[in-house]
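INFO  loader      accepted 1 record
INFO  loader      residues=284
INFO  predictor   begin
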Amino acid sequence: MERLRTLASWREFAQSTRDAGRRVALVPTMGALHDGHASLVRRARENGDVVMLTSFVNPRQFNDTGDLSRYPHTPVLDADLARDSGVDALVTPTLEEMWPDYPADTLTTVSVRGLGDVLEGVERPGHFDGVASVVAKLFVLSGPCRAYFGEKDFQQLVVVRRMVRDLSFPVEVVGCPTMREPSGLALSSRNSRLSATGRERATALFRALRVARESTAHVSERRALMTEVLRAANVEVAYADIVDVDTLRPLSDGDLRPARALVAGFVEGVRLIDNAVIDLEPRS
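INFO  predictor   done
INFO  writer      dumping tokens
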């Protein structure tokens, strides 16, 4: 596994891969790797791609400096997991190269209006501007590639797909299924901050989604059911919604469009998110 620490070496590796007739696979991460990230690498390797995994904690997507300071950093373990998963190049750029003006404002920002300012964007203003800006830079540096993202961060996936569509990036975005613990808890770097009791309470997010998925009630009733399950587990609810998969707009009773249920809440002060496909077609 190659270790790339400069933007120049990153560009050179990607271009030489294409020159050799191979396709580049980009797996963007913020480190603190787990099997969810490894599953993205496995998917890329199954497609025969040369895998570049980036590990960069992007400060521009944190509107809470405390949340940024608490984000887990495990560089040695990350390198081991990347190597064992079959990563071809681990990219760890410096903050100075990625955002030369930081902590002063970077004047250029990519914003996907209407998608980045709802749901997570309501309580985390500017979060998806930071996400879109850093992902755009990753795409510019990597060049034509496939980019692999987990569906656990479904809103992020929608934002990135729209950005690629609108700005004509030569990138194929591949969404990959959420990896879960046996309890149903979605794998997340933030789970490391939970106690054993907290992890048990956090399974309420998955249970809320399961209730909504299995219900045949109207959308409004399914929203209420999700909220009820979360509150019963003492999860501080940020939102529990059912939305259109492309626009992220809340659906109404009677809507039969492709739908996604999304939930977010706080357990032991840690913000957690999850989502699931919801079938709104009447069942016989």
